[in-house]
Amino acid sequence: MEFDCEGLRRLLGKYKFRDLTVEELRNVNVFFPHFKYSMDTYVFKDSSQKDLLNFTGTIPVMYQA
């Protein structure tokens, strides 16, 4: 699946460093194209809330058996 930069920019509309975030995620997508992103609401201990980017996937780790 192709990386959707414009869709991500729309999701990150309120982010302070939106363009930098999109660029970094595009770079990650080159090596890990199966990663998925979404927006979720995070609730802090003081009950305040913030919409944050959730980026999920598995990074393969090579090790000797």
Helix content: 25-40%
Strand order of the largest sheet: 1-2
Tell me the Rg in angstroms. 14 Å
Main pleated sheet: 2 strands, antiparallel
Mean pLDDT: 89
How many DSSP H or I helices? 2
Give the class from helix and strand content and strand pairing: alpha+beta
β-strand percent reads 15-25%
Protein name: UEV and lactate/malate dehyrogenase domains
Domain UEV: 2-65
Pfam families: UEV (PF05743)
InterPro entries: ESCRT-I_UEV_domain, UBQ-conjugating_enzyme/RWD, UEV_N
Describe this structure in words.
It holds the Pfam family UEV. Residues 2-65 form the UEV domain. This is UEV and lactate/malate dehyrogenase domains. InterPro entries: ESCRT-I_UEV_domain (IPR052070), UBQ-conjugating_enzyme/RWD (IPR016135), UEV_N (IPR008883). By secondary structure, this protein is an alpha+beta fold. The chain has one domain. The chain is built from two helices and two strands; from the N terminus they run H-H-E-E. A two-stranded antiparallel ribbon has the order 1-2. Strand 1 (36-43) and strand 2 (49-56) form a beta hairpin. The longest helix has 14 residues, at 18-31. It is flat, with a radius of gyration of 14 Å. The N and C termini lie far apart (33 Å). The model has no long low-confidence stretch (mean pLDDT 89).
